[in-house]
Amino acid sequence: MAALKYWLWLSTRKGVRPEQTGRLLEHFGTPERAYYADPEEYDLVEGLTPAARNALRDKSLERADAILGECDRLGVRILTFGDADYPDRLKNIYDPPAVLYVKGRLPAFDEEIAVAVVGSRKPSAYGRWMAGKLGMELAAHGALVVSGIAQGLDSEALKGALRAGGAVVSVLGCGVDVHYPRENRWLYEDVAAHGALISEYPPGTEPEGWFFPVRNRIISGLSLGVVAVECGLRSGTMSTVKQALDQDRDIFAVPGPVTSLLSEGPHRLIQQGAKLVTGGADILREYADLYPGRLRIPDQPLTQEPPPPAEEGAPEDAAAPEEREPADEKGVDKGAQQAYIDRSGLTDDQIDLLLALAGGRHTADELVDLTQIPARRVLSALTMLQLLGHVREHPGRRFEAAVRLRTGEES
């Protein structure tokens, strides 16, 4: 524990970039030696800016002690570059993070067929479907799905993997206890329960725009390959792909309609040599010989309802199907076909929520009031109902039942 606080001290020096941290460790050997070094010694480390040297002269350990206490309170694991189970895959990139904060169970990345699935925050229905399909097929057949947790395709990939019962990892541009976007707070809990949330930023760190491009090197660094689903030519997805290329990772891309702006990024990558993929099997085959017996290559893709053809190739700022205006004043689409399902296999909370949603759309807070179920349980149940395809989400975080519970009279 004593040595750990010096890792935290070093990793929280403002103005010291990750690659500069690496040079400090090469020069001094350990963070503790860097801490006790004379100020003049910092001048001997190549590449340090005046701001970095000034930050290193601040010897206060108050922040480190506070982080230790907060991680202990939250049950967050601190993994340092010097730990034996720090992934070699990440350790060998140009600028690995000195410290990782982990909520959940950290996979043995060096033994995993980890694939990053990334894409637009404002995708088309086709993109949502493809990201969910890829996440589900990869997880169902032995791969580990890695992504961010932003709205859009990152979330869809994670949901698809969770639906298949697979493990997932989300790398964040904020603290592991900070829900961003807030709308995905229930997904945070499910990812932590079935895999891990990972960040190089201490708990309590709020997101800033520049954190995310920096974060992307970890997404690609932990993965064997990166698949771009939908993105523009200038986007966070292309930033992740660039990091992956620099790290000598495999690049995959999903083709889309040539009329869609969201196809420009993947199509450019395919032109430049990325492997074109139409399903998880196209990716899994690339690693079958490297990991014999670990992957199950499917003969047929998993069954999943295709997207509405009219929504394919929607521009990035266009509304996805669930973002359309409700069909009537109650928010129920009278033309929608709702299948009847049995209650078997559903929890009591899931049943109560489906009954409450039978009359129209409601927010999570409204469902708490209607059902008197605690908020955390409502959010968890809603997530699983969405993964099962029993509930749809609409603008304003309003939820709608996609099925009806069979009462015994329906057949």
Explain how this protein is built.
By secondary structure, this protein is α/β, with parallel strands linked by helices. The chain has three domains: 2-61, DNA polymerase, domain 1 (Orthogonal Bundle); 109-299 and 306-311, Rossmann fold; 325-405, Winged helix-like DNA-binding domain superfamily/Winged helix DNA-binding domain (Arc Repressor Mutant, subunit A, Orthogonal Bundle), CATH 1.10.10.10. It contains 16 helices and 14 strands. The chain has helices spanning 2-11, 18-28, 31-36, 50-56, 62-74, 88-91, 125-140, 153-163, 185-194, 211-221, 236-246, 264-271, 280-284, 348-357, 364-371, 375-387; strands at residues 77-80, 99-104, 114-118, 144-147, 168-171, 195-199, 225-228, 250-253, 275-276, 339-341, 362-363, 391-394, 398-401, 403-405. A nine-stranded mixed beta sheet has the order 1-2-6-5-4-3-7-8-9, sandwiched between helices. It has a three-stranded antiparallel beta sheet with strand order 11-13-12. α1 packs across α5 (62-74), α7 packs parallel to α8 and α8 (153-163) packs across α9. The longest helix has 16 residues, at 125-140. It is globular, with a radius of gyration of 23 Å. It starts with a helix and ends in a 6-residue tail after the last strand.
Short description:
The chain is an alpha/beta fold and 411 residues long. Helix content is 37%, strand content 13%. It has 16 helices and 14 strands.
The termini sit apart by 62 Å
* Integer count of domains: 3
Q: From the coordinates shown, what is the CATH architecture of the largest domain?
A: 3-Layer(aba) Sandwich
CATH class of the largest domain: Alpha Beta
Tell me the CATH topology of the largest domain. Rossmann fold
Compute the CA-based radius of gyration. Answer: 23 Å
Query: Count of DSSP helices?
Result: 16
Which word captures the global form?
globular
Regions with little confidence, pLDDT below 50 for 5+ residues: 308-336
Number of strands: 14
Structural class: alpha/beta
The secondary-structure element order is HHHHHEHEEHEHEHEHEHEHEHEHEHHEEE
Residue share in helix: 25-40%
Outline the biggest β-sheet.
9 strands, mixed
Mean pLDDT: 87
Percent of residues in β-strands: 5-15%
Task: Please give the order of strands in the largest beta sheet.
Answer: 1-2-6-5-4-3-7-8-9
